[in-house]
Structures are given as C-alpha cells and as structure tokens.
Design a protein that fits this description.
Helix content is 43%, strand content 19%. The chain has 11 helices and 10 strands. The radius of gyration is 21 Å and the shape is elongated.
Length: 286
Amino acid sequence: MTGTVVVGVEGRPSSDDALIWAAHAAKERGWTLEMVHATGFPTIALDVIYDDAIQQGAMALLEKEAARVREAVPGVEPRLRVDRYTAAHALVERSAEVSMVVVGSHRLTMTERVFSGSLSYQIAAAAHCPVAIVPMMPQAEARGVVVGADGSQDSLEAIALAAAEADRTGQELHVVHAWQEPAMYMAADYFPSGIGEEMVEAERVILGESVAGLADMYPDLVVHRELVNDAPATALLAAAAGARLLVVGSRGRQGVARALLGSVSHTVVLHAPCPVLVARIRKHAH
C-alpha cells in the first residue's frame, strides 16, 4: 500500500523548508505528497462571492508552491488540498489516514510560548501518525540519526522508527540515554559504597535493552550507544548538533496538559537544530 506524506503550506518562510523536506521524503519512499493549506473556519457573515475568493486564493498559493516543489524535487507531482478548518485541526484530522505529517516551525516569542504554545507541537501531540517538524533543512555535511532512549514503550517505538530511517538513508544511528542522579536528602555516608557505580550500570542495562535486536534486523546499521549524565532534552539537543534527523517519542497529552511547557518532546521541538521526527503510536493516540 502506497503511503502519503501530508505537509502544511502557509506561504511563509517558516514552511518553505518543510515543504521541500516533505517532497524529498515522499520521493525517497515512493509515497504520494499531499499539500494542504488551511483557511480557517469561515466567518458567519461571509457571502458566497467572498468565500469563493478565499478558496481561489488558497488554491493559487498551492499551485505556486507546487511549482516550486516540481523544480526542486523533479519527479514529484503533489496532490493539492484546501481545507476550511484551522491548520491544527486539518492536519490532525488527515493524520488518521496518512503515513506522515510534516510541518514547519519558527522560533517563538515568549508571548507565543505562554499563550499559544507551538503549533507544530500541538499537531505532534494530537496526531495519529509520525510528525516531522522541520525548522530548517539539514546542512549538506550533516550526518547521523539521533534518538532518545529511556526504557519506556514510547522510546522503543521511537528507536524502531529511527533505526528504520537510519538504515534506509545509510546513516549511523546514535541512541542517547540521559540519566540524572536523584537529589540527596541524607548525609552522603548514609548510602552504601558503590551505589554510584550500581546506578550507572543499571542505566547502561536500560540502554543495552533499548537497542537489543537492532543488529539482527539491520545487519549493516552502525549503532552508537551514548550514556549521558544530563537532562534528557539537553542531552538530545547536544547530540543533534550536526545531525540529519532527531527522533523522539511522545504519547501526547489531553486538555490543559497539552499546552504545558517542560516535556522533553516540547523542548526539543522548540529548540532543535535539525528536523525532528516525533513517533506517534496509533493505539496511544486513540
């Protein structure tokens, strides 16, 4: 079954790189590229003529951007779609039926972070399929696929997705497991000697179990295990400097919790130096 890559088109610089990245992703996989422009909910007072003008303007924008895709990525013939809903609603709705959603991003002001959050993160949190957030195209010299590991089912899904991407593109896979020592509320001499070494070994076991089976599944894939004593988001962002792709797992949240800052996925999406692929698990999304 042929997959579909859906990309949001805004006609702004923040979505330019995302569009070209999505076109390459579709061509490399032999998938269909669908370009979506969302006009938003129509105002009640709009008459038919004005509504038609909005639809025509949206289609003209899509045609213009489609021409840019054909020039940049020969062989890709995009499918165009105008949606009357908001961008978040339109892309999340399409995510239930497609293989990947791609969105652009830009650096948010403090006001945007507090009151609206990141649109790209909102889509990634609610989508039913993997979502790629593309702040910029990776540099020509960029190398490697980076993924976070913490032993959870969500991170295992992310590692599986990252491994498949790395093997498909001939890149090396960097699996990063970040851990931090718990806060000490007792005197140091209360704890038995060697507790630090035992903690490190326990974290190393988690990392080893996270990559178990990759060698059998991808014999030619080079896998680097990286155990880092740091905050997860900080470790992932550092490892992603110079990478072609960063993959993270996220079950997503509901209600008010979705808008809160502080999760690893949200921090990474806001500050990533390369495209980020958020692995969404369909059974979790439902």
